[in-house]
Design brief:
78% of the residues lie in helices and 0% in strands. The chain has 504 residues and is mainly α. Helix 6 runs antiparallel to helix 10. The chain is globular.
Length: 504
């Protein structure tokens, strides 16, 4: 028994190191690159103005500078969308680990453009840099969960998959700390701040090659049984369990000759209609709720809350720490409370705090302590987001789609996330300037509608097999229809049962 415990400890250590290496240069980059754009806001806006003045002798109006700046910030999302779309083909061709390593080409090129943009007097280089860094984040957000899920044993799969959200939140905190005026957030160093994302990439390039490729990819995609066994042995720290190997071999046999579904096939497949609607709505709501806008434009938000300029950079670190803490708490609670409860609870609480925030902003000039209530609302809003949507949204496609549909489902979910992030990034500064104290009313509406959708249409998935989940969705997908689909879907449920045992 003690020997078995030792083996488990060894396997966990190897897996933890692999997760840390992949995530440090992976989903951490998403959070980091959201956060570092806050500190140099005024410096880059001044740089844009000076560039126009020097090149074309044009003095830009304030709204024109804001528009160019907003586009620089938001183009990151379009890069992320492109990355999400090319991630699938890249993983099939190069494998999970090699795809993450090659992904650093986009990152390093982007960092090089950012660090030289000031000397070249070119804000366009910052724009291209943000696109490339966005592609890097888009690929990581899709490939990393796949790599983790295929490498982790069943009893650790949930915790390992949620670690992506934890590292994203950690990236936000790290970006906020590095962006302090005392470190790289001052006027002489802003171009180094934009290029500092190369450091996590270098760490990944130095460490990830020492870890094995995904065992499932090695056996199912490449047909290399010996390499799969060696990878499992290294990841588990012990001899390969026959049961685990048999599961992978069974999956290989069942998927032989089958091709993964394309996104367009999911849109035309009635048997996954409500699964697809659920993933699209919840992925969109994750961005349309406005949480990430707080990181993009924290300066504007806290200024509206009445916080002085000198204090803002320290307050923003608290927001990142808040989400980081909430994601860890979500990791601990998700298997106890369930996905539906966490999602609904998160969205309902966000609705409440958005309403309180609006009231506090409306009375900040009349009651002296209102700015502090406004600030507290932002923290509680982020805490509620981390406890619900941030942790749960990424897990859903794994649990409600089978093995052949899952890659396309992640592609669609990722596309919705990045598109909506771009839209919010573009309109949020104008929402703040036009709606002023009512800027969070649209977000409150999104959160309320999302909570209602989850409560009315999303089945609980905690502790259920894929066949049971599919059965619940089947009642919605074929509501009012004859039972002529029953024999067809029964076969799918049986397949789903097998897929669930090897779910990513």
């Amino acid at each position: 028994m003690s020997s078995h415990a030792g083996e488990q400890k060894g396997s966990s250590l190897t897996l933890v190191l692999m997760v840390a290496s992949a995530a440090f240069g992976g989903t951490l980059q998403y959070g980091y690159n959201l956060a570092i754009m806050n500190a140099p806001t005024t410096f880059i806006q001044t740089f844009i103005n000076e560039t126009f003045l020097e090149r074309w002798d044009i003095q830009l109006e304030d709204y024109q500078v804001t528009l160019v700046w907003t586009f620089i910030v938001s183009i990151f999302s379009l890069g992320g969308l492109a990355g999400a779309l090319i991630a699938g083909p890249m993983t099939i061709r190069f494998g999970r680990k090699k795809c993450l390593l090659l992904n650093n080409i986009f990152l390093m090129t982007g960092a090089l453009l950012a660090v030289t943009s000031r000397a070249a007097k070119s804000f366009e280089m910052i724009l291209i840099s943000r696109v490339l860094v966005g592609i890097n984040a888009g690929i990581s957000m899709n490939v990393q969960p796949m790599y983790f899920g295929e490498s982790a044993p069943k009893h650790l799969r949930g915790a390992v998959s949620l670690s992506s959200a934890v590292f994203t939140a950690f990236g936000v905190v790290l970006g906020q700390v590095v962006g302090l005026r005392e470190i790289l957030g001052s006027e002489p160093y802003w171009h180094y701040l934009l290029a500092s994302n190369a450091i996590p990439g270098i760490v990944q390039l130095m460490t990830l090659p020492w870890f094995p490729e995904s065992p499932r990819y090695l056996l199912i995609d490449r047909g290399d049984k010996e390499a799969c066994i060696n990878a499992l042995r290294r990841l588990r720290g012990c001899e390969v369990q026959s049961g685990e190997l048999e599961e992978i071999l069974q999956e290989q046999a069942e998927t032989k000759g089958m091709k993964p579904c394309g996104p367009w096939e999911l849109f035309t497949d009635r048997s996954v209609r409500w699964q697809l609607i659920s993933v699209m709505i919840i992925s969109s709501a994750m961005q349309l709720c406005g949480n990430d806008s707080i990181y993009f434009y924290a300066y504007y938000v806290f200024k509206e809350a009445g916080i002085s300029d000198g204090q803002i950079q320290y307050i923003t670190i608290g927001t990142g720490t808040c989400e980081f803490t909430a994601c860890i708490m979500c990791n601990l609670l998700i298997e106890r409370k369930g996905r539906r409860f966490m999602l609904m609870g998160g969205f309902i609480l966000m609705t409440v705090w958005a309403v309180v925030f609006t009231i506090a902003l409306s009375f900040e000039h009349y009651i002296s302590w209102m700015p502090y209530l406004s600030m507290a609302c932002i923290f509680t809003y982020i805490l509620s987001f981390g406890m619900g949507p941030a942790g749960v949204t990424g897990v859903l496609p794994t649990e409600i789609f089978n093995q052949t549909a899952r890659p396309a489902a992640y592609m669609i979910a990722g596309s919705m996330m990045w598109l909506n992030l771009f839209i919010i990034g573009m309109i949020f500064p104008f929402l703040v300037s036009e709606l002023s104290q009512y800027c969070f009313v649209p977000f409150a509406a999104v959160c309320l509608l999302s909570a209602l959708f989850v409560g009315l249409f999303l089945p609980e998935t905690k502790g259920k097999s894929l066949s049971a989940i599919t059965s619940e969705f089947h009642k919605m997908n074929f509501k009012g229809q004859d039972k002529k689909y029953e024999s067809q879907t029964q076969a799918q449920y049986q397949l789903g049962e097998v897929c669930h045992s090897t779910a990513l």
